[in-house]
Each structure stands twice: as structure tokens, then as C-alpha cells.
Specification:
Layout (H helix, E strand, L loop, with lengths): L6 E8 L2 H13 L6 E8 L16 H15 L8 E5 L7 H4 L5 E5 L3 H7 L12 H15 L3 E4 L2 H11 L6 E3 L24 E6 L8 H9 L6 E6 L10 E4 L7 H9 L2 E4 L8 H8 L4 E4 L4 H4 L6 E4 L4 H12 L2 H18 L2 H33 L1
Parallel strand pairs: 1-2, 1-3, 3-4, 4-5, 5-6, 7-8, 7-10, 8-9, 10-11, 11-12
Helix pairs in contact: 1-13, 7-11, 9-12
């Protein structure tokens, strides 16, 4: 469409960690010189007329996709862009329509079937084999196959795209959700802590129950409070308890949140269900050892025994052992924190990952034009 830099519309789902992901991406793309991004956030809301639609039409995927297309129409529609990036597939049900005009890039943290496998704790219940599930599967196959390129936050999602949806793995690039490392520069300069004070354990999770907050409270009641403080950042109420400090209203990259990361000694996220929590990248960027659970793609992000400790979900005893082990060993905390920082620099750097995403977008534009050109040539030959 445009002369000069390609104009790319970014239709970004705004739920949970995707809000932080969007902000980090916007900051990183400010220095990107190969494309001209136009940001079109798709807010999550249960208000308005859409929830009154019947049956499956009330789902977030339907509402999100209609809102994404409405946002696109408000700025002139697909034809005003050289490419469109949809993050995630939950706002991309109408992407095949856009793909008739411009190349579509899909970005996702997890596939629908990935989510089905962890979704009970989100209040989501799949019905494998039902007519509705088969229809959903076919619909998403169509969405994924309309894409000129796909990016996935993790190998877990890439494997599902290949195995469950028939997507050519050569079209899928794994790009982890990036962290603005300039905000976490203190993570590169941590030293072995020698202060005579309680060890500070940090938890960051909006959904306190699903993310494992009650398990941490149980550990504190079981004696951990004798040697540790628990600092909780959440949107939900937390019952008062000795040694527990609660913080509300801290948004992505809030200076107060960054200070908590800097002052912490251990990061704990004993979640019962997650795909890939963005806060894991933040914790490693902060140079903290991480205690988390074997769910979703967490074992891809946190290397068990090297940058943290991975435990089974729901296992309070294992959580307590992991936290006590780290609390009692400053040298181990420091070694794991350094390893985590190295992982963050190699795999979770927002600027590096934005450049990789720009590579995917420009490659998708070129691939789309080649395919369209070849189809046009074939049509002429057959005429």
C-alpha cells in the first residue's frame, strides 16, 4: 500500500499479561526502523451489547474479534495497511477476511488446545469431541492457515500449532515475550546478600488464587515467616498475616513494582495454571531465582536447578522445601539469579525480540507478495 516503510497494524489483545507485553513491544518498536507500527489495542470488557448474543457468540474470542475488526474499520480497514499483526488468535477470528487484502501475521502465547489443557483453573471447561469443539478446531485451523507467518511465545505453542492445527512449522517462529532490560539493569549487578534481615519473597499475580498465592500463605503459616517476608503484588484482597505485605494498584513497569523486584531475594509463582507468565521473564531480568510450577511453558522459561526450582502444581510441601532451600543459601540464590539474568538477556530482551518480530513481519509481507504474484501469473497463463 505505502511507499517507504511498510505500515503495519498491531491489533493487540488487552488481557492479563498481554497488557505488559504490548507496552514493552511499543517501547521496543520505537527504535525499529523497518516498519511503521500503528497500535490498535483491543480491550477486554464484558459490557456493551455483545454479551447478549446467543450461545458461543458470547465468548471472548467472538467479542474480541468483532472489536478488533471494528478498530480496524475505524482507521480505514485492511487496505490502509501493508500488513496486519493479530495478537492473539482470540481477536483474530476474522483474520481470514483481512488476509484477502493484506498479509496477516498471527502472534500467540498458546493455542486454543493448549489453553484447554490448563483452562479449568481459568473457569474454562472444554468438551473434547463435541460438535462445538470440532467446529472451533476447524475455525482456528482456518485462522492459522490464513497467516503469512506465525509467532509463538514458546515451543509448547509451536508444537501444538503443528500437531493440532496442521500449521507448517517452517512458518512458525518462537519469540518469547520480551522484557525492557533497561528497567531491570539492577539485575545484572546483584551481589551475594549478607544483610542480617529476613529473606524477601516476591509474588506478582493479578489472580491471587490461581497464581498460587494461598499456597505461599500456607508456607508462611507453616514456619516460613520465621525467616522470610512475603511481598504480594495483586489485584485481589489478601487476608492479613504476619510477615505478609500486600500491594495493590501497581501496573506494568510501575516504579514501585521495579523497586520491589530490586529489593527481593526470591521470586515465587506457584501457579496452578498458566501458559507462559510474563512475570517469569521480569523476575529473571531482575536477577532473582525463581520458584514456579510445571505448567504450560514454564519449564521452557525457567531451567530447573539452574535458574530456579520447578515444583508440581498444588504441592505445598514442595513449595516450602524450595523456598527454605533458597532462603538458607545466599550463594545458591545468587548463582541461580545470575543464570536467570543470562537467560533473560539471551531470550527475553524486548528490543532483540522486537527486531526478530520485525524480521517475521517483513518476511511475511515478502512471502505474501510472492504467493499473490505466482497466483496472478498462473491466472494469466490459464486465460
Amino acid at each position: 500500500m505505502s511507499e517507504g516503510l511498510p505500515r503495519v497494524g498491531f491489533l493487540m489483545e488487552q488481557t492479563l499479561g498481554h497488557v505488559t507485553y504490548t507496552r514493552n513491544l511499543q517501547t521496543a518498536f520505537a527504535a525499529e526502523e523497518r516498519i511503521r507500527p500503528v497500535w490498535l489495542p483491543v480491550p477486554f470488557s464484558t459490557g456493551g451489547p455483545l454479551p447478549r448474543l446467543p450461545g458461543p457468540a458470547r465468548s471472548w474470542a467472538v467479542r474480541g474479534s468483532l472489536r478488533a475488526y471494528a478498530a480496524l474499520r475505524r482507521v480505514g480497514g485492511p487496505a490502509r495497511f501493508d500488513a496486519l499483526l493479530f495478537h492473539t488468535q482470540s481477536v483474530a477470528l476474522l483474520a481470514p477476511l483481512a488476509a484477502r487484502r493484506v498479509p496477516v501475521i498471527l502472534s500467540l502465547d498458546a493455542t486454543p488446545l493448549n489453553f484447554d489443557r490448563v483452562g479449568v483453573q481459568y473457569g474454562h471447561r472444554a468438551r473434547p469431541g463435541s460438535v462445538g469443539e470440532r467446529a472451533k478446531q476447524a475455525l482456528y485451523r482456518r485462522v492459522f492457515r490464513s497467516a503469512a507467518a506465525v509467532t509463538a511465545w514458546c515451543q509448547w505453542a509451536k508444537d501444538s500449532l503443528r500437531d493440532d492445527y496442521g500449521v507448517d512449522p517452517d512458518l512458525v517462529t518462537v519469540i518469547h515475550p520480551g522484557v525492557d532490560l533497561t528497567l531491570f539493569s539492577f539485575g545484572a549487578t546483584r551481589s551475594v546478600e549478607a544483610e542480617a534481615r529476613p529473606v524477601r519473597v516476591l509474588f506478582v499475580g493479578g489472580d491471587f488464587a490461581r497464581k498460587g498465592g494461598p499456597l505461599l500463605l500456607a508456607c508462611m503459616r507453616d514456619g516460613l515467616a520465621e525467616r522470610c517476608e512475603l511481598h504480594v503484588v495483586t489485584t485481589q484482597p489478601v487476608p492479613p498475616a504476619p510477615g505478609v505485605f500486600v500491594y495493590h494498584g501497581l501496573g506494568p513497569n510501575d516504579p514501585r513494582l521495579l523497586e520491589l523486584y530490586q529489593r527481593a531475594d526470591i521470586f515465587a509463582l506457584p501457579t496452578s495454571a498458566d501458559c507462559l507468565a510474563v512475570v517469569l521473564g521480569e523476575a529473571m531480568a531482575a536477577g532473582l531465582p525463581v520458584v514456579t510450577t510445571r505448567v504450560g511453558a514454564h519449564p521452557e522459561a525457567v531451567q530447573d536447578g539452574r535458574s530456579g526450582i520447578i515444583i508440581p502444581p498444588g504441592d505445598v510441601a514442595a513449595l516450602g522445601r524450595a523456598l527454605r532451600r533458597l532462603a538458607d543459601d545466599p550463594a545458591l540464590r545468587h548463582a541461580m539469579g545470575r543464570a536467570g539474568r543470562a537467560i533473560a538477556e539471551a531470550r527475553f530482551d524486548a528490543r532483540t525480540n522486537a527486531a526478530r518480530l520485525a524480521d517475521v513481519i517483513t518476511g511475511g509481507i515478502e512471502r505474501y507478495r510472492r504467493v499473490r504474484g505466482a497466483r496472478g501469473l498462473m491466472a494469466k497463463c490459464q486465460a
